[in-house]
Amino acid sequence: MMATSLGLFFTVLWSSAAIATKFGLQAAPPLWLATMRFLIAGGLLFLYVYVIRRQSRWPRRREWGQLGLLGLLNTTVYLGATFWALHAVSAGLFNLFVTINPFVVAILASLVLKRPIVRREWIGMLVAGTGLLVATGPAVAHGSATLPGIAVLVVGMLSMAMGSVYFTTVRWELPSIAIHTWQISIGGILLVPITYLMERHAGPLTVGPALIGSLAWLVLVISIGTMLLWFFLLRQDVMRANNWLFLTPVFGYGLAAVFLHERITTGDLVATIFVMTGLWLSGNITGPTRR
Known about the structure:
The chain has twelve helices and no strands. By secondary structure, the protein is mostly helical. The chain has a domain at 2-28 and 72-173 and 208-281. Helix 2 (30-52) packs across helix 9 (209-236) and helix 5 (100-113) runs parallel beside helix 7. Mean pLDDT is 84; it is low at 287-291.
């Protein structure tokens, strides 16, 4: 029951990131917004972990490479790509695409971690995947996204899946909060030159409620709170954690309708039913099942 509650709570918070980003994009170019988020969040985490609490040691030589790769995959590529994609993709469709992640993780985990994918999980993924197709086609046809936006978003999803599996292959000795501090800080630093090259001629920042509110939510709630919960879920079971992302469209469409006034279509509702059914069939609501 506790695992299910945490999974649902994570999914609601994760879905809200696209909404907050959309508000921020009204006042800043996408990569500049992403870079500010990561550097601010990394700085606050560093201050808390190493200055205020002094509860963790600095990484050892071999750990710098591990943290750098994790930051590159989970922050620079994944989050950088999703910020860029959100200026060309609706928040609802963005959250729909998050569900690509469990499929990729399932394949990578079976290859790298030798974790078998049981029949019930395959059936659940197939049913949920059918729901995704029901909603994706009309969304693209009606102009809710551009092809470059979708391509960049897919790259981001692939990078997140790789980061999730890589995280479980390393025998981490640092606490989760220290790992996240370094991955988001390193990822943000790596994104600085990319941001400068791609957006040095972009429009100016507009400092106001949209930018400040967006950054506050993305930094405090998403980059710090939600990502620490994500690491906790990954430590329990990498497949089960990623399967919670199947629920992202359910909450994502609802939040987008309320805060961004995006229209919810019949196809979206049908897709939601398929996704919920797939999640239930795969055993994620009642708990992990192996047979």
